Amino acid sequence: MTDNPALSKPGHAKFLGRFKRLWFHNSLADRNSSFSCGARTRIFIYLSAIAAVFLLLLASFLIPHDFHPALVRSLQVILISTGVAALGLVVYFFQRDFLLPLMHLRHWVHLMRGGFLHAQIPVVKDAEFADLAEDLNMIGIMLLKLSEDAENQLQEHTKHITSKTRSLQILYDLSASINYSGNMDDLLSKFLQTICNVANAEAATVRLFEDNHFRLVKSYGLEKFHKLDEHLLLVHEYPRGEAILNGKVVWDEAVDWDLTDMPGNNQRQHVGIVSVPLAYRNRILGLFNLFIDMRNLGNRKEMKTLLLSIGQHCGMAIEKTRLDAEAHRLNIMEEREHLSHELHDSLAQTLVSLRFQIRVLDETVESDDKQSLWQQLERIENTIDEANTELRELITHFRAPIDKRGVMVALKQIVRRFQEETEISIFLQQEWPEVTLPGNMEIQVLRIIQETLANIRKHSEAHTVRILLRSDHEGEFTVLVEDDGVGFDKPATSNHPGEHIGLGIMRERAQKIGGELIVDSEPGEGTRVVLKFSYPQKKISCTNIQTLAGK
């Protein structure tokens, strides 16, 4: 409430001081003593006059009747007339000095209670109640002044609340527009037009801080200045130091534009320039420059607060737009990486399998075994069909084909295919519950198993492979793929793009489902690949062991 100008008025103190000087002009004891003494004196006089009247009347009746009758009658008439006249005077003065002031006081109280605070008690000079009437009139004046001040304060409060409500509505609209702005240009246009309307600015510019300097990106209303456009821009070519360093709104009133060379203008116009920082978390992202006619400026303190809030909202919107653009860019990169992984784990694996089958085909051709030749050609044809299917699926959905009946059916197909293409015995042991995992989780699990089998086929020289799928009641899933091959010391690396990058991709896939991939291998001891991830389930699974023996 301290920012309300209505509360800073000195009217109360000034008026109360004046009232105190009038009210306590004489000491309260002296006024009470004077009033009591005067009232007692007047009452004593009135009572004495009444007593004298009664004595005169009594004396007129006590005169002997045998004493000169005519003289007695005349004397009685004189005494009675004098007594009646004296009594009338007593009644008149009593009504004037007591009854009439009380009637005026009662009427004044009635008017004051009715809201007529300007009512006054008639003051008779040198009357007994003159001081009291003056004091009551002063109280009435004080109440009237307090009422007027309260009304003025109420109007100021109403105006203040209306201004705050308008400011909040503006900020609410700007906050809502942040979520619907399609790009930076639309966003800045919205804020620029809004801030011009709020500040009654004739023109405005906005600069964004990029590459350690401020770049003009948007303007509004500068066409009104015609030839002065370039001059106006040069005035604030360098950023406002105070606004940038302290994040404050800066006013510059010492700008006087000569508009005599513009159509319809024959005078100089005093235009203030307001610099509003666009800040977000103590970082200056840009700057508003407003060109305002100082005659149209309202409450500067409230305007500065509102402009600063608009600048902060604009800074937040700019940062959000930048973050959205960065998120969109990262999303595109992630999609590209995802597509490359899918190509590596699906189509690339199929092509590798096709390469092995062609080698077998060469050996079959040399052996001149037609039956085996036709079988191998049929396998190659099936592999090409699978590659075509995977490629079409990648083009349409960017994901590998997963059997609609679940991950186990797709895994069995992978195992059967591995068994048909190699001379390695493979065992699949399932201890998973009969539930459906999320699609993305199924893809990542299958791709990790598929990449592991591809590495076994290419590098392990193994004779036996075991795949174990296990889970517990808390939804902890484990995938184990182990072989009895030659093993290795460290994962093989290569400078050739696309070769021997499977382990890194497998770890990335495990991280995408919140899991962990552990690779354990020693030379001559084979290799163990363990995938652990969580997905809470309620059903308890039964064990199903399936053995697929190779040739």
Summarize the structure.
This protein is of the alpha+beta class and 551 residues long. It contains twelve helices and twelve strands. The strands form two sheets. Strands 1, 2, 3, 4, 5 and 6 form a six-stranded antiparallel sheet that branches. A six-stranded mixed sheet has the order 10-11-9-8-7-12.
Task: Explain what this protein looks like in three dimensions.
Helix 8 packs across helix 11. The chain has twelve helices and twelve strands. The two termini are 91 Å apart. It has helices spanning 11-23, 28-62, 69-113, 130-178, 184-199, 229-235, 241-246, 300-367, 370-397, 407-421, 439-460, 502-512; strands at 201-210, 213-220, 250-252, 256-258, 268-280, 283-293, 425-431, 464-471, 476-483, 516-521, 527-534, 544-548. The chain is rod-shaped, with a radius of gyration of 52 Å. It folds into three domains: 5-152, no CATH class; 180-324, 2-Layer Sandwich (Beta-Lactamase); 403-551, 2-Layer Sandwich (Heat Shock Protein 90), CATH 3.30.565.
